[in-house]
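Hi all, long-time lurker, first post. I run a small reading group and we've been trying to get comfortable going from sequence to structure in the token notation. Rather than ask abstract questions, I figured I'd post a concrete chain and ask someone more experienced to write out its structure so we can walk through it together at our next meeting. Sequence below, copied exactly:
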Amino acid sequence: MLRNNKSALSSAPVALATGWQRLLLGLSLLLVAAACSSTPGNIGVGLPSADANTGAYLVDTLTIRASTVLRDSIITSGSNLLLVGRYKDPQLGTITAKSYVTMSLPSNFTPSQTQVFDSLVLVLKPNTYRYGDTTKTQTLVDVHRLNSFAPTTQHGYASPKLTPMSGRVRAESVNDPNQVIVRRARRNIPTLRLRLASAFGQELLDAGKARLLTSQEQLDARFPGLALLPGATDEAALVQFAANSETAALTLYYHEPTDPATALNYAFALSTGRHFYQAEADRSAIAGLNTLTTSLQQIPAALTTQQTYIQGLLGLQTKIEIPYLTNLRSFGRNIIITNAVMIAQMPDNTSGARANLAPPARLSLYRSNRNNQPIALVQNTRLDSDVTATGTPVTFDYRTDVANLAGINQFGYRWSVLEYCKDVLNGTVTNDGLLLNTASPITPERVVLGGPNLVNNKLQLRLYLISNN
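-- Answer (accepted) --
Happy to help. Here is the structure in token form:
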């Protein structure tokens, strides 16, 4: 629809008769273009009277297409984090996170032949990040040994398809069965100390006595690493651990028989070793998303109940297309787009009630190619009212005042697509659409957005233009 908008534009007079005739001609061409599309919501419903003073119009019925895209090449080996847990997400299915770490030798481990094993403890430092339901109890890390680690020449990816660990993880747990920690994953846990099986600790001590742990290569060969897994029945929350802390280590305790009161220890560091984490979701029961299996595959919102999804760690992004944007040229050679704002709202019952399930605080926008690959960040996407002291021009915030813009009580996002629309009309970029992703794709926050044809909470584009022909 074209609406006159006096407040948004200047009051400079225009030649009404000629401008209005050209505008009608342009609108009729847009109607023809819109008729070629089977998607509802095209331009051309109820032409209002033109304003004789400004020639200012609001276009808010341009066709928008939205879909969910899978891009699973998310690298997690470059972060200083570990992620472990399982959470049953009503929108994305059951999400499972696992971490893999290697151990490092701070110095040669050469215990004396007489020293006696006491215990083996895995020390981890949780931070305050949780995603899921922290009111439920869960196993705080089930530890397994690895048969081999991923090759050192490869990145560690979040997708198990890209860094296969199947066959590398031993089936048996090395947790001490009498010391398994099962409790709520509260934010105030300062340090997690997991006592491991005595047989594993004795094996480490014996290898040291035999002088088989005097180099990193020997350690990697005999003890390739550890897998940090959720408990088999867990479905509470994903827990984040720091992987750059000096206190994150596998610590072996032992003593001299002649001096049992003096505790000796050796810490195999985890923070300086190689590590990465993975996440996967069982989407088998989620309509539409259960067919999203191939990287760069695209599922239209029409097949996912007019909703699209964003979850950085799982590689889910939302693609937005404005297929008839170039048809605005039909309004004449001298049209000026003064503003273009996209409003994305979260459908009812998709945002999560607890703070641990809050949607991403920020999103990033990329120009896409026709193969759904991101090719460039879209600059200047923030609206003036979105800018914060820590903000950057390539992200925009989750907002609680979208209701004021959309006329309904709903949370969501809004951002400018003015520069993109201008560039498309000027022919400097191709109109292959935009990709919306979390600003931090290595974390599991997700958001569900309404599609363009949803009855309520739908995706909207409000574009303002002047025709000076």
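A couple of things your group might point at:
Residues 4-54, 383-396, 400-409 have pLDDT under 50 and may be disordered.
The first strand starts at residue 2 and ends at 4.
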